[in-house]
Design goal:
Strand content of chain A: under 5%
CATH architecture of the largest domain in chain B: Orthogonal Bundle
CATH class of chain A: Mainly Alpha
CATH class of the largest domain in chain B: Mainly Alpha
Shape of chain A: elongated
Strand content of chain B: under 5%
Largest interface: A-B, 14 and 17 residues
Number of domains of chain B: 3
Order of helices and strands of chain A: HHH
CATH architecture of chain A: Up-down Bundle
Radius of gyration of chain A: 17 Å
Order of helices and strands of chain B: HHHHHHHHHHHHHHHHHHHH
Number of helices of chain A: 3
Number of helices of chain B: 20
Oligomer: heterodimer
CATH topology of the largest domain in chain B: Topoisomerase I, Chain A, domain 4
Shape of chain B: globular
Largest sheet of chain A: none
Structural class of chain B: mainly alpha
CATH superfamily of the largest domain in chain B: ATP synthase (C/AC39) subunit, domain 3
Radius of gyration of chain B: 20 Å
Helix content of chain B: over 70%
Number of strands of chain A: 0
Structural class of chain A: mainly alpha
Largest sheet of chain B: none
């Protein structure tokens, strides 16, 4: 039982971790582009910020999967 | 292209896209033709050129102010591109912008050859390459062509100008060849196929302009071949040799085989005006640059597209103001604009 709980916890950790890395990879290019556009025109701040956080949804998917694992299996 | 390259291009591409958005819209140029010079200067003074017009306003007036403001803005804009880019992008931009070193050397040498004074020469230099304005001022102060060549002995351009024997056209041609050879080598060094593709198309367009000019002047085949630049994408050396040996009507017909025919197809019945032909080829070049920059958005192409677009904007503005100053007709000015 303890071993099962451990595996579920590791699974939840992997879900959050990999999704975080994926989101970061997406954000680095978008962030760089947003900073580039903002350097020329401050009006791009709102749009740039919005575009930069869009890949964050991937991290949230990971978090949701982790919460499902933890709560559904009552670890 | 690795992730890091994508990130570097994302930054510079987003920046130049924002800069391109600030260029004067194409539909403004016909309106400028209907304006007077003070009106155009006022419009320019309220645009992206404001800082340059304000800065130079105390020193120059009228069209001189206009000319200097445009040149300074162009130089600063290109310098900014070199400063905000990194690694491969920076290397390719720097190499591409050596065009302005060649331009400046030619301007100074022509100025000295024709006896222009320092001020007149400096009016036409654009310090957007590796040679700084300070260096160019020093060169412009030298009295003779030979003196300028000697002063350039420590630069990479010296091999092209060292053999000066009183004929400027010869060393100007050598400078062009040196520039394009350097660029082709830069494309090979960077392994950037897109840069090479863009560059080789530019070489084709340049060769076509040379061919048209030389054919009009009825130059001999051997003389024409000396001027042509090798390395084009469609016009290989065998094509150039063939085109150079044809008479003007056959030469025009032979161009139908190449994609560049599209650029001049609609004026194919009236190819008397070199201006018309060159304007069409420039327009083809700018449309081509814009089109392929959208095909490959995270590459050097959007930056090159911006560099070309900015130059065309400055050229158009200069053409309008100089045309108005010399009282050219609206139709003549319009024919010289690349829109």
């Amino acid at each position: 039982m303890v071993a099962d709980a451990g595996m579920i916890a590791i699974g939840a950790g992997i879900a959050v971790g990999l999704c975080g890395i994926g989101a970061a990879m997406g954000e680095q290019a978008i962030g760089a582009a947003a900073v580039g556009a903002m350097a020329e025109d401050e009006k791009f701040f709102g749009k740039g910020l919005l575009m930069t956080v869009i890949p964050e949804s991937i991290a949230i998917f990971g978090l949701v999967v982790a919460l499902i694992l933890l709560f559904v299996f009552n670890v | 292209m690795g992730t890091s390259n994508t990130v570097k291009y994302a930054y510079i591409v987003a920046r130049v896209r924002a800069m391109k958005g600030k260029l004067i819209p194409k539909d403004m140029f016909p309106k400028f033709i209907n304006m007077e010079i003070p009106e155009i200067t006022r419009f320019i003074g309220e645009s992206e050129y404001k800082k340059d017009v304000d800065e130079l306003g105390k020193k120059y007036k009228g069209t001189d102010l206009f000319e200097h403001a445009l040149n300074q803005n162009l130089a600063l804009t290109y310098r900014k591109l070199m400063e905000v880019s990194q690694d491969e992008a920076n290397y390719l931009i720097t190499e591409y912008l050596r065009y302005w070193d060649i331009w400046n050397i030619k301007t100074i040498l022509r100025g000295k050859f024709s006896g222009a004074n320092e001020e007149e020469i400096l009016e036409d230099v654009v310090s957007a390459g590796q040679l700084r304005y300070r260096d160019l001022t020093e060169f412009a102060r030298i009295q003779t062509v030979e003196g300028v060549i000697a002063a350039l002995s420590k630069t990479t351009y010296y091999p092209a100008i060292a053999g000066y024997k009183g004929v400027l056209a010869e060393i100007e041609n050598n400078l062009d060849k040196l520039y394009y050879t350097g660029l082709v080598a830069a494309g090979i060094n960077s392994k950037d196929k897109l840069f090479s593709k863009f560059l080789r198309t530019e070489i084709d367009l340049k060769n076509l302009k040379i061919l048209f000019r030389m054919k009009r002047a009825e130059m001999e085949r051997e003389e024409i071949l000396k001027l042509l630049i090798p390395g084009g994408i469609e016009l290989k050396e065998s094509d150039l040799t063939r085109l150079a040996s044809l008479a003007f009507p056959e030469f025009v017909r032979a161009l139908e085989e190449y994609s560049y025919w599209e650029a001049i197809r609609d004026i194919s019945n009236d190819l008397n005006s070199l201006t018309n032909i060159e304007t069409r080829l420039d327009k083809y070049g700018i449309l081509y640059a814009t089109r392929i920059s959208y095909y490959y958005p995270l590459s050097i192409l959007p930056v090159l597209d911006y560099i070309v677009s900015k130059k065309i904007e400055v050229d158009n503005l200069r053409m309008i103001v100089r045309g108005k100053e010399t009282k050219l007709s609206e139709d003549t000015i319009k024919a010289h604009l690349v829109m």
